[in-house]
Design brief:
- The complex is a heterodimer.
- Chain A is mainly α.
- Chain A has helices spanning about 5-30, 45-95, 105-125, 175-180, 190-205, 210-265, 265-290; strands at about 130, 130-135, 160-165, 165-170.
- Chain A starts with a helix and ends in a 10-residue tail after the last helix.
- Chains A and B meet through helix 1, helix 2 and strand 3 of A and helix 2, helix 3, helix 9, helix 10 and helix 11 of B.
Chain lengths: ~300, ~475
């Protein structure tokens, strides 16, 4: 083979450039921690990484929704707890009202307290969370229980959020489920406020304690059962949410591990390569430096 | 005795010529495309001397030839065209990747993602003006990104047109010089054979021309002129060059380069010009479905249509309905409906509710429209019902990624191939200074030897002249 000195120069330059190139790319992988900087670095892996990232972003969104729904449900549970406590007080008053031998003055006092209980139930019905009426259905900006509760029949719309793909959870308790209908005229059969009004009426007219016991006490006890059932439903929804959250977290952890494997640099492997390429680069520089300057011209006198 | 003078004189002259050629070689050791030359010697015409036979009459320089392998030239031209094409293709595709700038937190993918997420966020609290504003903002950002990408690709298309024109001009310039050299070679060959340096220059020009376009070259055995053809039509014929036109021909959106004189479209498939044309007509096309800008338009149109269909069926906080969220026709002019402004009245138009929130059966927390809009993220509305909007975009990226990777690999293999061909050519044709130096020593010795013969003949003549004294 006929070799000229220009050939040696261009060959060693090419080798040096190639080695430097390899060194540069492994250095970039190491310093950024990523092995995919543009789609063409590894199109198949880049596509998979993007799919996983989209997936992860959706999971994060679901987690956010679960959190928001969970907060509302927790607040609803606490509020329903207060409603239950107030109902217990109402029941006590009904028990007192079922006592025979109540004087007019006693009835007056009872009535005043029942009306106060009614007012605090109404206030509980107007509980607000983050600027939204908890029991207002989708009309979250309208007071569901104004001082005359019949004025604005509380909305029965459901608040909904996606907590998974095609998985929609309604997370509000409607005022109707707790307090019954507020449509005028209030009825004593399907409205808590109607039941209270009926009780107040009994106290005003001095109806027999037997009737109070049979009608009001019973209705109030039934209503407490009804609220208990609503609370149980809230509890089961909270359970469902924490299950969904746990599943989501598992999924996220798995996806993140896969994503890490796909797009991040294998540090150990890259470090070994860095050393290899560096050695090759040094060698090509050294060889080039020694071979290029030699020429017959130097040896002719 | 006289013959001795002449023979040694011829030896001296031949050695001198050889030394001249070696000097020329050394001087051109670094000249690109130079082939080393060699003085070919031949024995002088012998004189018949019956009955002993023929007596030699010294040496003559028969020819000064360049040492070159024509077959390697042919290969080099073919592979230079491929390398030129691969280089341009790689740089175009890489630039397109850079325009898209993925993967990143600011690319179109991220903007799409944020847009869908803003609807999902709004579905949690549709009455919140902050969340309504963030839907508008993410819509603005998405539209802006579409506009920017279209503008950048438009810029690239214009740049490519400019490059096509300047490449055509380069081709014309090279063709003109090759035609001029044909003329010189034709005239020179008639008088003196082997115009070595002219032919070197022509080979160099042909190789450069080959990297610009896929040409075929035929050398006339008669006068050494080179004919150059593109797709069967002559670019250079004898001393005449046929220019390509810089007035490019548009057939709809498809671009081609015609010959000035005949108007025939030059069938350029390879070389830099071939890659530029293919890039402009396919990868950068706004109409061909394989073009990335065309796919960005399709994405913008698809998203705009889907969002508007759902949005106009929904209701705003103020009971408005039938309002489009986006306006525009494609990625170039897509924008958020200007009616949806940053004021509370403007933001109220964002339709999150499925029914009129002012009506009896709905309220401001009605989020069914917002949820439906967020669910568009999962709808398989692209690629004949197989891809989500983000999936479609991802497909575009992946496609571009694979093409760019293939182009990069092609550049690498083509580079190695061209380098090895050049090396083979160098092995045959390049000047080796060491070799020339060794030859110089040889020629010097040969000169000295001939001079010694000369002085010996002279001494002998001296003896003869002084015989009688």
């Amino acid at each position: 083979m006929r070799i000229t000195s220009q050939m040696m120069v261009s060959r060693s330059l090419r080798d040096v450039a190639q080695n430097l190139n390899r060194l540069g790319s492994v250095q970039r992988d190491l310093s950024t921690g990523r092995r995919i900087h543009r789609p063409s670095d590894d199109p198949a892996s880049a596509a998979r990484a993007e799919t996983i990232k989209t997936n992860l972003a959706q999971q994060a969104q679901y987690a956010k929704n679960i959190q928001a729904a969970g907060e509302t449900l927790a607040l609803t549970d606490t509020t329903l707890g207060s409603v239950t406590d107030t109902m217990m007080r109402l029941r006590q008053l009904a028990v007192q009202g079922s006592n025979g031998g109540l004087l007019q003055a006693d009835r007056e006092a009872l009535k005043r307290e029942v009306l106060e209980v009614k007012e605090s139930l109404r206030n509980l019905g107007n509980t607000q969370a983050n600027g939204r009426y908890l029991f207002g259905g989708v009309k979250t900006q309208t007071e569901p229980y104004p001082s005359d509760v019949t004025l604005s029949p509380a909305d029965t719309g459901r608040l909904t959020l996606e907590i998974g793909p095609e998985l929609v959870l309604d997370y509000n308790v409607t005022g109707e489920a707790v307090f019954g209908s507020t449509a005028a005229p209030l009825s004593a059969t399907n409205s808590l406020f109607g039941v209270i009004d009926e009780f107040v009426g009994f106290l005003e007219t001095g109806t027999s304690s037997q009737v109070v016991s049979n009608v009001s006490l019973k209705k109030i006890s039934d209503w407490m059962d009804r609220i208990g059932a609503v609370r149980a439903e809230v509890g089961s929804k909270q359970n469902r949410l924490s299950f969904a959250q746990a599943r989501l977290e598992d999924l996220q952890a798995n996806l993140e591990t896969t994503l890490d494997e796909i797009q991040n640099t294998d540090i150990a492997q890259a470090s070994v390569r860095l050393n290899q390429y560096e050695a090759a680069f040094r060698a090509s520089l050294a060889v080039g430096g020694r071979a290029i300057p030699m020429s017959l011209v130097d040896f002719l006198r | 005795m006289n013959l001795g003078y002449i023979t040694s004189l011829k030896g001296l002259r031949a050695a001198q010529r050889q030394l001249d050629v070696a000097g020329h070689n050394v001087a051109n050791a670094e000249t690109e495309g130079y082939s080393r030359q060699r003085a070919e010697l031949i024995g002088g015409t012998p004189i018949p001397m019956a009955p002993v036979g023929f007596l030699g009459t010294g040496v003559e320089v028969a020819a000064i030839r360049r040492v070159r392998d024509q077959w390697v030239d042919f290969q080099l031209r073919a592979e230079s065209a491929n390398l030129g094409e691969a280089n341009v293709r790689q740089s175009m595709l890489t630039q397109m990747e850079e325009v898209l700038g993925e993967p990143s937190d600011h690319g179109l993918g991220a903007q799409l993602k944020m847009f869908w997420e803003s609807w999902q966020n709004l579905s949690a609290r549709p009455e919140d003006p902050g969340l309504r504003s963030s839907v508008r903002q993410s819509g603005l950002a998405l539209a802006q990104k579409f506009n920017d990408l279209t503008a950048h690709f438009g810029e690239m298309r214009r740049e490519t047109l400019g490059r096509i024109r300047s490449t055509v001009e380069e081709i014309n310039g090279l063709a003109k010089r090759i035609a001029e050299l044909n003329n010189q070679i034709g005239r020179a060959s008639a008088a003196t054979p082997n115009p070595n340096d002219l032919k070197d220059e022509q080979d160099r020009l042909l190789t450069r021309l080959a990297s610009k376009a896929d040409i075929s070259v035929f050398e006339s055995p008669l006068n050494g002129m080179q004919g150059v053809f593109i797709g069967g039509h002559p670019l250079v014929s004898a001393d005449r060059a046929y220019d390509l036109s810089t007035k490019l021909k548009f057939d709809g959106d498809v671009l081609s380069v015609p010959f000035v004189e005949s108007g025939i479209v030059a069938a350029v498939k390879g070389g830099e010009l071939g890659a530029l044309l293919a890039g402009y007509n396919q990868n950068l096309s706004e109409t061909d479905s394989s073009g990335v800008p065309a796919q960005i338009h399709e994405l913008a149109k698809g998203v705009m249509m889907a969002v508007n269909t759902v949005h106009s069926a929904g209701y705003g906080l103020n009971g408005s309905t039938g309002v489009n969220f986006f306006v525009g026709t494609n990625a170039q002019d897509i924008a958020v409906n200007p009616a949806i402004g940053s004021t509370p009245a403007g933001l109220a138009l964002v339709a999150a509710a499925g029914q009129n929130p002012l009506g009896g059966s709905s309220g401001p927390a009605d989020n069914s429209s917002a949820r439906a809009l967020a669910a568009l993220r999962r709808s398989l509305s692209f690629g004949s019902g197989t891809l989500t909007p983000e999936g479609f975009y991802q497909e575009t990226l992946t496609q571009l990624g694979f093409e760019t990777l293939a182009a990069k690999r092609r550049v690498q293999t083509q580079d190695v191939l061209v380098e090895s061909i050049k090396e083979r050519q160098a092995m045959v044709s390049q000047v080796s200074v060491d070799e020339e130096m060794a030859n110089v020593v040889r020629f010097q010795k040969a000169y000295a030897a001939s001079a010694r013969i000369f002085s010996t003949v002279e001494d002998m003549l001296d003896v003869l002249v002084n015989l009688g004294r």
